[in-house]
Write a structure and sequence with these properties.
By secondary structure, this protein is an all-alpha fold. The chain is built from 6 helices and no strands.
């Protein structure tokens, strides 16, 4: 039996549309569509998703359809910005509030894990050469 390894991006990730939570929402929408979401929840089943979608003024169904049809995060971000009608100031305020909420509600152990994982990923990018092990004997 294949173990589900799906893990959406962090809530404070702004890679899609420059809005916190949209990258995570994107990952979950796509995974829900393919049936690979595992124990995560998408749309109305998730308070986080509901808050982000309410801010965007986009339904979970419309967002999921766009996320599935537009497989490029930059183009999806443009679609989000075209359809949400939010100003840069609105987005900046939302991002600030979401970051504060996330830092106050994220369990410290999970926060440390996420931070450590990012550090290790950065370190991995810096080392492209792997040691060659030559058997002796």
């Amino acid at each position: 039996m294949k173990q589900n390894t799906f893990r959406p991006r962090d809530m404070i990730n702004k890679e899609v549309a420059g809005i916190c939570g949209v990258a995570r929402l994107t990952d979950k929408a796509r995974a829900a569509h393919t049936g690979e979401i595992g124990s995560y929840k998408y749309g109305a089943d998730s308070d986080q998703d509901t808050a982000i979608l309410a801010f965007l003024g986009i339904s979970a169904e419309a967002f999921q359809e766009a996320a599935v049809q537009i497989d490029n995060d930059i183009r999806l971000g443009a679609w989000v910005l075209d359809n949400c009608g939010k100003s840069d100031k609105d987005i900046s305020t939302f991002n600030r509030k979401l970051k504060v909420w996330w830092q106050n509600h994220m369990p410290r152990a999970a926060y440390s894990y996420s931070k450590r994982r990012r550090e290790l990923n950065e370190k991995q990018k810096d080392t492209d050469v792997f040691p060659i092990i030559i058997p002796m004997g």
